[in-house]
Amino acid sequence: MKRYDVVIAGAGHNGLVAANYLAKAGKKVLVLEAQEQIGGATQSVRAFEDYDARLSRYSYLIALLPDKIVSDLGLSFNNLSRNVSSYSPYEGGGLLVSRLWDQRTADSFRSLTGDDKEAIAWQEFYGEIEKFAKRIAPSLLEPLRSSAELNTQIAMPRIWDQLIENPIGHVISEKFKNDLVRGVVLTDGLIGTLTSAYGMQANNCFLYHLIGNGTGEWKVPQGGMGAFVAELHRVALSLGVEIECSAKVIDIDADATGVQVTDINNRKFQADYFLSNAAPEFVSEKINSRSSLEGSQIKINMLLKRLPQLKSGIDPKLAFAGTLHMNESFNELERAYDQAVMGNIPDVIPAEMYCHTLTDPSILSPELQAEGYQTLTLFGLHTPATAYEENNKATTKLVLEKAIAGLNKYLSEPLEDVIAMSKDGKPCIEAKSPLDLEADVYLPRGNIFHKDLSLPFAESDEEVGKWGVETNLPNVYICGASAKRGGGVSGIPGHNAAMAVLQSK
Fold first, then answer.
1. Residue ranges per domain, the chain?
2. What does the alpha-carbon distance between residue 377 and residue 323 come to, in Å, rounded to a whole number?
3. Backbone region of residue 465 per phi and psi (left: phi > 0; alpha: psi in -120 to 50; beta: other values)
4. Using N-to-C axis directions, what is the helix angle for 434-441 and 392-408, rounded to 10°?
């Protein structure tokens, strides 16, 4: 039986981050990956075989990855800023928000609302959140503090109260009056989370989306998510990390002396420690895990011959340069939630869209770039996993049709007219339901965060001073999205699990 200091289940980005920290500290590390390739949900694929275009299929953007992790591990990759934060079309126009506030943004707010009140409220609100983010972000890579201690350290009690103590829906409604503006703000509390604006899970999600790396800026990894994973892989190999694919962990036995790990090939490995990057329920029922909401998003990937024109007349290269919000006013989001929480597909699908090739054309071949091709990804909200159970294929088709129809009402030409076609005449479009996400990359019920997002501090006296990665089993830790302060492309749980191991003895 081979023996290692640490065995890790899952070669997604968090598993590789943990492996690299541990190997750098002199540990002998084995990573066992269930799939045929590394990356997990952070992989780039040639989704349409007739075209040389490598899409970030499941994870689209990087926000939470701390600069400290990049520096500690000596990672060399580019993370590109988008000049536009968002564009939200509405009947007769659209709300454009630049990444850095400018006159164009001010004029867009005024055109929507008739005055400058919402624009001023927006700048004040996000200005305070930016200060809050800079103060709280370093704590994500440190042992857990109590809420009282962290609140005192941040020293912004009013913002703490707004973001953590009171439902974010009430805060947004008090700060802003326009329904569309309210909705654009609210989306950060809903992405990947089936909740109302007034549920406290929305607060957790909102906080998570806005404190990343102390800036909250969501960036595009140059070369796609696969390039980021490839760089983690390069460092891992240089440090002597062993990685095996098609080697799903199916069971563990843990006690105070160490852990025995069994993979799907019936091989057994002995280790001092075991880390799970995979959701614990896919590894062993012996690992207690936090509760989880249903996954509720559909992910749609497309290859376009060109970007479609919009009824508002805006240049599509500007409209799609950031996040395009579609049918995401506050009231539309609440109506969609009311339908989804009953297990139904909403009449109108709220969604966000990203055109990565406007920021990073390198994911296309030079030939496709020259011909004007673009990728387009759509992240649809509030389509619960239960709604797909009776007939996943048919329901996915229905949601896809609804999503495209929801975009088409803002376009001056049908999206179908600009979608690239394969050699056999099929449109270059794929849709992944929550059930597909579970089957493809082991996301429980399609939940992209594995579990409910948690607040970034200790919620009991027992958690104070711990890393938020501990389990009920000795020498077994969570290094993936299921960990406290997990979720998204961050590397944070990978770092924290490695620190828990290194500080355990």
1. 2-47+64-78+223-290+451-502
2. 10
3. left
4. 120
Spatial neighbors of 369 by CB under 8 A, at least 6 apart, are 357, 361
Residue with tokens 């057994």: 268
Radius of gyration of the chain (CA): 22
Query: What is the end-to-end Cα distance of the chain in Å, rounded?
Result: 24
Per DSSP, 145 falls in state: P
Give the dihedral sign, CA 354/359/365/371: positive
Sign of torsion over alpha carbons 468, 199, 174, 180: positive
Task: Please name the residues in contact with 387: beta carbons below 8 A apart, sequence gap of 6 or more.
Answer: 340, 343, 344, 345, 395
As a CATH number, domain 2-47+64-78+223-290+451-502 is: 3.50.50.60
Q: What is the dihedral of CA 256, 257, 262, 267, to 10 degrees?
A: 180
Backbone angles phi, psi at 125, to 5 degrees: -65, -50
Crossing angle (nearest 10°) for helices 13-24 and 492-502: 30
Secondary structure of the chain: what % helix, strand, coil (to 5)?
40, 20, 40
- Phi, psi at 391, each rounded to 5°: -155, 90
- DSSP code per residue over 239-250: TT-EEESS--EE
**Are the C-beta atoms of residues 478 and 471 closer than 8 Å to each other?**
yes
Residues β-bridged to residue 90: 93
If we measure between CA atoms, which residue out of 25, 30, 31, 29 comes closest to residue 11?
Answer: 31
Torsion of CA 493, 480, 467, 31, to 10 degrees: -90
pLDDT in tens, the chain (505 residues): 899 999 999 999 999 999 999 999 999 999 999 999 999 999 999 999 999 999 999 999 998 899 999 999 999 999 999 999 999 999 999 999 999 999 999 999 999 999 999 999 999 999 999 999 999 999 999 999 999 999 999 999 999 999 999 999 999 999 999 999 999 999 999 999 999 999 999 999 999 889 888 888 889 999 999 999 999 999 999 999 999 999 999 999 999 999 999 999 999 999 999 999 999 999 999 998 777 778 999 999 999 999 999 999 999 999 999 999 999 999 999 999 999 999 999 999 999 999 999 999 999 999 999 999 999 999 999 999 999 999 999 999 999 999 999 999 999 999 999 999 999 999 999 999 999 999 999 999 999 999 889 899 999 999 999 999 999 999 999 999 999 999 899 999 999 999 999 999 6
